[in-house]
């Protein structure tokens, strides 16, 4: 029991570091040598060091090339000590110092949104990775899909409606969360607003519920940029291949002398042509954020994002494999640089996000967090062309016309977050209530436009004729509304200082009146459903705050509506469940210069639906199963000052184990078995050339299946990218080369992707 009692003998240090010109000191190293603790300050100069032994300690603020600043700090048992320190260095000098720091700028893994608790990566029994603004800047990222390539095992995907997502552990997810909340199904997003993307691996229904943003492979969370308490910002201009152009602005300022009212504005506009004979993409974003520290206990944040986009899109299909001889995209007779549409057949969409958060510090042990998100996406018009190959020479062009449509989600969430002791056991707890209202208003039809010979001149396709055919056929108008009411609790408690357990449970009630058809004035598909979603985890730190082993059981669920059988009976369905078992190891050693994780997982999906033919009629059965298993590893290293490395590898096999005859034993489409990534960055840290840097990386994605019968291959590909940059306190110059091997490759919906291309960027900082 002695080791259990010792857990009570620790406290926490929270603080803020500023410069002598009263600006936040970001990326500064904080060290407690006798406790062997090290951390870095955040962008706003704040830091937190937990699990510090009670007593007096010498805090060192360490800067490369400067004598350490020392401050004695007294830590009390089970309490948080707050301090503020000021460095005798200007903000300009600090920026220069950050350029030569030997800390890995890609290594930040700490996040309270992932577990909704103040626990560190080594204390968390689940696997997650973070890709942040440092990668966005260095890799000159203009599309989210390029950022996802830094996540081990992640395969970028694309939804025709404008969302860009990723496949995790064999399961596709097209939308994602926004600051931990549920977004609209339509998410046209420019990465200029992002602080980072957090990817949580495995079924995550316990904390995030059942909605279109959560799958059994995991969930990803967009974290947007927040205000800080000094004036600063950046304006950038980027240009490149295929008529690419982008201008962005990021401006931050306090609005009062007390620096309690803070404002930040991110805005940008970009346009791009296509490497194909037709095609374009445009978007613009304005995203203001306001934070107000009303009292020393209460802080309110308001975050708004308005994005508008227009672009062309197609997808590819094969009508019958018996009439097509090609068995891979590489063997198709269609032209890689041909779009088979024109720029009038396009999409115009947008999203309005209004997000608010109120944080109230109830006591030293408890915090109240109230979150609200209104997220509404829409199509002004949506012309989506499917190119269906019916033989080696003939292609059908079919167009879905959705004009206009709205998809919305409103969520209200209340969390109570505690850090306290019961006897000798430390508990970190979140207790939450969640209300989610999801709605849509649809107006759509699909028309067969024409059948063309791909070897002959291509007949015209235009929006006017598509609309005429659509109105002749008639549109189908529907609306739907669904409500979720949830309560959840998650507790991480220390059995000993090194052994922690996570126990979590969510109770969820889903209700909907079904789909309302405007033509009939009636609802169909009304149902209610209850679900319980547990999560269990164990973590043992073999070496305290350096090496930990972990295991977890995680659960996710998807609500399923009842279905009408051919004999007119109603089959009431249960929720579909995904259950994961996982074990692995995490490391964070050499003062943060080497970190990573490795794990093996096994995900079983139950209560899936399948069809069974009886007397020539297709009946639905709910005994389908699916099995996904694999292993992953990632590493982040900084072996030398200025040298930063991130790398990952994942192997996954995801197949149907009990399904309809056409799917039985087949692998899931667009789910490659092997995915690997690496990015190596080096910048000079001394002399006149300091700030000059070079980066290069590779991504490999193996073969997968394009269609459900596992006959037609979505080919493997390797991308090689490189960048050269010159980073100074007041400006940054960058040149980026993408796809240096000039690979021809296709995304999961069959769209040909850009071959070799280049970007150049200049940014002015202030």
Q: How would you summarize what this structure contains?
A:
With 766 residues, the chain is mainly β.
Task: Describe the structure using short key phrases.
766 residues, mainly beta, Immunoglobulin-like, Ferric Hydroxamate Uptake Protein, Chain A, domain 1, Maltoporin, Chain A, 25-stranded mixed beta sheet, five-stranded mixed beta sheet, 6 helices, 44 strands, 5% helix, disordered N terminus, ion transport, Plug_dom_sf, signal, transmembrane beta strand, iron transport
Largest pleated sheet = 25 strands, mixed
What is the residue-mean pLDDT, rounded to a whole number? 91
The number of domains is 3
CATH architecture of the largest domain, by name, is Beta Barrel
The CATH superfamily of the largest domain turns out to be TonB-dependent receptor, beta-barrel domain
Radius of gyration: 27 Å
Proportion in β-strands: over 45%
Report how far apart the termini are.
Answer: 56 Å
Q: List segments where confidence is low: pLDDT < 50 over at least 5 consecutive residues.
A: 1-5, 96-102
Number of strands: 44
CATH class type of the largest domain: Mainly Beta
User: What would you call the shape?
Assistant: globular
Instruction: Determine the CATH topology of the largest domain.
Output: Maltoporin, Chain A
Class inferred from helices and paired strands? mainly beta
Total of DSSP H or I helical runs spanning 4+ residues: 6
Fraction of helical residues: under 10%
């Amino acid at each position: 029991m002695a080791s259990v009692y010792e857990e009570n003998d620790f406290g926490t240090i929270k603080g803020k570091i500023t410069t002598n010109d009263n600006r936040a000191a970001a990326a500064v190293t904080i060290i407690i040598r006798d406790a062997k603790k090290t951390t870095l300050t955040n962008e706003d100069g704040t830091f937190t060091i937990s699990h510090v032994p009670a007593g007096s300690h010498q805090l060192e603020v360490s800067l490369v090339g400067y004598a350490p600043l020392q401050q004695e700090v007294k830590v009390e048992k089970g309490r948080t000590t707050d301090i503020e320190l000021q460095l005798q260095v200007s903000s300009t000098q600090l920026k220069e110092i950050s350029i030569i720091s030997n800390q890995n700028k890609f290594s930040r893994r700490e996040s309270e949104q992932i577990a909704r608790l103040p626990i560190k990566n080594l204390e968390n029994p689940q696997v997650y990775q973070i890709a942040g603004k440092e990668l966005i800047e260095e890799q000159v990222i203009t599309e989210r899909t390029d950022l996802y390539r830094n996540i081990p095992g992640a395969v970028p995907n694309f939804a025709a409606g404008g969302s860009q997502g990723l496949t995790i552990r064999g399961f596709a997810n097209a939308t994602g969360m926004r600051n931990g909340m549920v977004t609209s199904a339509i998410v046209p997003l420019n990465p200029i607003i992002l602080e980072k993307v957090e990817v949580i691996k495995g079924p995550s229904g316990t904390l995030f519920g059942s909605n279109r943003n959560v799958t059994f492979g995991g969930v990803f969370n967009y974290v947007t940029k927040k205000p800080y308490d000094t004036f600063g910002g950046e304006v950038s201009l980027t240009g490149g291949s295929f008529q690419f152009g982008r201008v962005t602005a990021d401006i931050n300022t306090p609005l009062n002398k007390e620096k309690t009212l803070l404002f930040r504005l991110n805005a940008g506009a970009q346009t791009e042509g296509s490497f194909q004979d037709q095609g374009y993409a445009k978007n613009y974003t304005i995203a203001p954020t306001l934070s107000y520290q009303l009292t020393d206990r209460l802080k309110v944040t308001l975050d708004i994002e308005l994005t508008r986009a227009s672009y062309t899109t197609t997808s590819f299909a094969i009508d019958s494999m018996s009439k097509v001889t090609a068995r891979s995209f590489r063997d198709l007779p269609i032209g890689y640089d041909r779009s088979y549409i024109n720029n009038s057949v396009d999409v115009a969409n947008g999203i309005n996000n209004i997000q608010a958060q109120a944080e109230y510090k109830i006591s030293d042990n408890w915090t109240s967090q109230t979150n609200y998100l209104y997220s509404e996406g829409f199509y002004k018009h949506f012309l989506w062309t499917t190119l269906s190959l019916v033989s080696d020479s003939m292609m059908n062009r079919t167009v879905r016309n959705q004009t206009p449509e709205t998809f919305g989600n409103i969520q209200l969430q209340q969390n109570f977050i505690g850090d306290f002791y019961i006897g000798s056991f430390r508990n970190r707890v979140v207790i939450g209530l969640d209300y989610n209202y999801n709605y849509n208003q649809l107006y759509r039809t699909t028309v067969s436009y024409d059948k063309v010979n791909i070897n002959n001149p291509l007949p015209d396709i235009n929006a006017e004729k598509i609309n005429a055919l659509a109105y002749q056929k008639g549109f189908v108008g529907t609306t739907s509304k669904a409500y979720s009411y949830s309560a959840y609790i998650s507790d991480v408690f220390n059995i000993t200082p090194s052994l922690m357990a996570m126990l979590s449970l969510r109770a969820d009630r889903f209700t909907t009146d079904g789909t309302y058809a405007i033509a009939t004035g009636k609802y169909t598909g009304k149902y209610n459903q209850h679900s319980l979603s547990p999560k269990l985890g164990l973590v043992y730190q073999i070496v305290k705050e350096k090496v930990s082993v972990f295991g977890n059981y995680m659960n996710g669920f998807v609500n399923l509506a009842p279905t009408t059988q051919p004999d007119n009976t109603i089959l009431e369905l249960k929720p579909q469940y995904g259950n994961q078992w996982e074990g692995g190891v995490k490391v964070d050693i050499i003062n943060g210069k080497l970190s990573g994780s490795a794990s093996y997982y096994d995900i079983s999906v139950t209560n899936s639906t399948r069809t069974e033919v009886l007397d020539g009629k297709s009946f639905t059965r709910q005994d389908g199963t699916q099995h996904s298993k694999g292993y992953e590893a990632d590493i982040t290293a900084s072996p030398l000052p200025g040298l930063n490395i991130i790398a990952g590898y994942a192997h996954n096999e995801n197949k149907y184990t009990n399904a309809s005859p056409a799917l039985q034993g087949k692998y899931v489409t667009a789910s490659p078995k092997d995915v690997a990534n690496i990015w190596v960055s080096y910048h000079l840290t001394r002399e006149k050339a300091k700030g000059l840097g070079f980066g290069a990386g590779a991504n490999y994605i193996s073969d997968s299946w394009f269609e459900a019968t596992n006959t037609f291959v979505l080919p493997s590909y390797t991308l090689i990218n490189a960048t050269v940059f010159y980073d100074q306190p007041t400006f940054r110059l960058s040149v980026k080369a993408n796809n240096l091997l000039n690979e021809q490759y296709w995304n999961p919906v069959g769209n040909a992707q850009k071959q070799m291309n280049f970007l150049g960027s200049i940014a002015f900082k202030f």
